[in-house]
Specification:
The complex is a heterodimer of chains A (124) and B (296).
Chain A: H1 2-31, E1 37-38, H2 39-49, H3 60-69, E2 73-78, E3 86-91, H4 93-123
Antiparallel strand pairs in A: 1-3, 2-3
Chain B: H1 3-18, H2 25-42, H3 49-59, H4 62-70, E1 75-76, E2 79-80, H5 81-116, H6 128-146, H7 161-165, H8 178-196, H9 198-201, H10 212-232, H11 236-256, E3 266-270, E4 273-277, H12 279-286
Antiparallel strand pairs in B: 1-2, 3-4
Helix pairs in contact in B: 1-2, 1-3, 1-4, 2-3, 5-11, 8-10, 10-11
The chains are: A mainly alpha (124), B mainly alpha (296).
Chain lengths: 124, 296
C-alpha cells in the first residue's frame, strides 16, 4: 500500500514540477507588470500569494536572469543602502507583449481543462 | 550587523563563487542582499548567526545555486556542460606538461646527471611514465567519486573535502606566513642532515650515491629560503630566490627519475640486532608476490 502511495506521490511531484516550470516565468512577469521589484521582494511576494508553487528561493534568480537575457525584463541597480545593493527588474515592451499572450493562453487553457474535468466528473 | 553572521555570508558566497564563471560579481551581490534580508526577516529585524544559517539553508546548496544561476542545468558525466571545455583545456595542459617532463627526463636528465655526478643511462622504459600517469589519474577519479560521501553532514558554508584538498574556497592568494617558512627551514635542515648521516650511506644504491651530496645541498638551500622568508617576509628578492630554487628542483627531478630506486638496502631487525637487508632478496626469499609497473 505504502509503495503504491509513494508511486502516486512521485507521479504527482513529476507533474507538478512540469506545471511549475512554465507557470513560474509567467508569474514573475505578472508580478512585475505594473511595478518593478528586486529579487528578494519577488521571492516574498510569490511565497505569500502562491501556495501550490512551493519553490526553492534560489530558483527565482535564474528565472530573472533568463528573462533579462531574452530581453523580456530590464534591470537597474539601486545603491541606496550600500550594504544591500538591489537589482530592480521591470518589464520591457517585449515582456508586456509576451505576458499578454501568456495570460490569454493560460486563461483559455484553464477554462478548457475545467470543462474537460467537469465533463469527466459528470460521467462518473 | 552581526560580524559572525556576515562572515557566514562571505563563506557561503565564496563557495558559490567557485562554481560561477568569472565576472559574476552582480550575481553574488544579488545573493548577498537576498541572504541579509532573509536573515533580517527570520530574526525579526536583526541579523544573527542562527537567522543567517537559516537563510543560507533556505537558499540551498552553493553548487546548485551557482549552477542554476550560470548554467543550463545540463551535465556530462556529473560535470556541468559549462565546465567541460575549461576542464578539457586543463587536462590538455597537464598532459602536455607530463609529456615535456617525460621528454626532459629521458633526454635532458642523463646529460644533467653527467654534469652533476657520473655517467648514467636513461633506465626508464618510455611507457612507464604514461602508464603511471594513467594509473594515478584512475586513483584520483576513484577518490573524487568517493569523497562526496564524506561531505553529507557538512553545512552549506563549509568547504567540501575536494575544495579543501585543492585549496579552493576561503583562501585566496595569500602571503607566505612565518610559520610556513619555519617549517621549510626545519624540514630543509632535517632532511639534508638525514641524507648525510653516516648510517644512511650504506643504504643508497650505487646509482644514487653520486647525487646524495647534491640532494642534501638542495635541502639546505630550501632551508635558507625558509630562513629568508622568516627574516624579511615575502618580497621580490625572496620570490625570485624561490623561483630559481623551484627550477633547480625540477632539474634535479629530471636526473633522479633516471637513476631508479635510491635505496639498495634497508635496516631490518633480525635475531636481536639491526642489520642491512636487501629488499629484493627479501621479497624473493619470502616469495612475496610483487607487482611492478615495469612488468607492464
Amino acid at each position: 500500500m505504502d509503495q503504491k502511495r509513494r508511486k502516486s506521490d512521485e507521479e504527482f511531484q513529476r507533474w507538478s514540477k512540469e506545471v511549475k516550470r512554465g507557470a513560474l516565468s509567467m508569474l514573475v512577469l505578472s508580478l512585475l507588470n505594473k511595478n518593478s521589484a528586486y529579487g528578494y521582494e519577488l521571492v516574498k511576494k510569490m511565497e505569500e500569494k502562491v501556495s501550490f508553487l512551493a519553490f526553492e528561493q534560489g530558483t527565482i534568480y535564474p528565472i530573472l536572469r533568463r528573462l533579462e537575457k531574452r530581453e523580456l525584463l530590464s534591470s537597474n541597480w539601486s545603491y541606496e543602502d550600500r550594504t544591500k545593493p538591489k537589482k530592480y527588474y521591470s518589464l520591457t515592451r517585449e515582456g508586456e507583449r509576451v505576458l499578454d499572450m501568456m495570460v490569454r493562453a493560460w486563461s483559455k487553457l484553464t477554462n478548457e481543462i475545467g470543462e474537460i474535468i467537469e465533463e469527466a466528473d459528470s460521467y462518473e | 550587523m552581526n560580524e559572525d553572521a556576515m562572515k557566514l555570508v562571505e563563506q557561503y558566497l565564496e563557495r558559490v563563487r567557485i562554481y560561477l564563471p568569472f565576472r559574476s560579481e552582480e550575481a553574488l551581490a544579488e545573493i548577498r542582499t537576498h541572504l541579509i534580508e532573509e536573515a533580517e526577516a527570520i530574526g525579526a529585524g536583526s541579523v544573527t548567526v542562527d537567522s543567517m544559517l537559516d537563510a543560507i539553508i533556505r537558499l540551498g546548496d552553493p553548487k546548485a545555486v551557482a549552477n542554476d544561476y550560470a548554467g543550463t542545468g545540463k551535465s556530462i558525466w556529473h560535470v556541468p556542460v559549462e565546465y567541460v571545455q575549461p576542464l578539457v583545456r586543463i587536462l590538455v595542459v597537464l598532459v602536455a606538461i607530463g609529456m615535456s617532463f617525460i621528454l626532459g627526463a629521458s633526454i635532458v636528465g642523463p646529460s644533467l646527471g653527467n654534469f652533476i655526478g657520473e655517467t648514467i643511462v636513461a633506465r626508464n622504459n618510455p611507457a612507464n611514465m604514461p602508464i603511471m600517469v594513467i594509473v594515478n589519474l584512475l586513483f584520483v577519479l576513484t577518490i573524487m567519486r568517493g569523497l562526496p560521501s564524506s561531505d553529507v553532514e557538512k553545512g552549506p558554508t563549509e568547504r567540501t573535502t575536494l575544495e579543501k584538498f585543492f585549496g579552493i574556497g576561503l583562501e585566496r592568494f595569500r602571503l607566505k606566513g612565518r610559520r610556513e617558512a619555519a617549517i621549510e627551514l626545519v624540514t630543509g635542515v632535517g632532511l639534508g642532515v638525514f641524507l648525510l648521516l653516516p648510517q644512511m650511506q650504506g643504504l643508497y644504491s650505487s646509482a644514487f650515491k653520486p647525487y646524495v651530496v647534491s640532494a642534501a645541498i638542495l635541502f639546505f638551500i630550501g632551508a635558507v629560503k625558509g630562513s629568508l622568508f622568516i627574516v624579511a617576509g615575502e618580497n621580490k628578492l625572496n620570490l625570485i630566490f624561490e623561483s630559481i630554487y623551484g627550477g633547480l628542483l625540477v632539474f634535479f627531478a629530471l636526473v633522479l627519475i633516471n637513476i631508479g630506486w635510491p635505496l639498495e638496502y634497508v635496516f631490518g631487525y633480525q635475531d636481536g640486532s639491526w642489520s642491512l637487508i636487501d629488499p629484493m632478496v627479501f621479497i624473493a626469499e619470502t616469495r612475496i608476490p610483487f607487482f611492478s609497473l615495469e612488468l607492464l
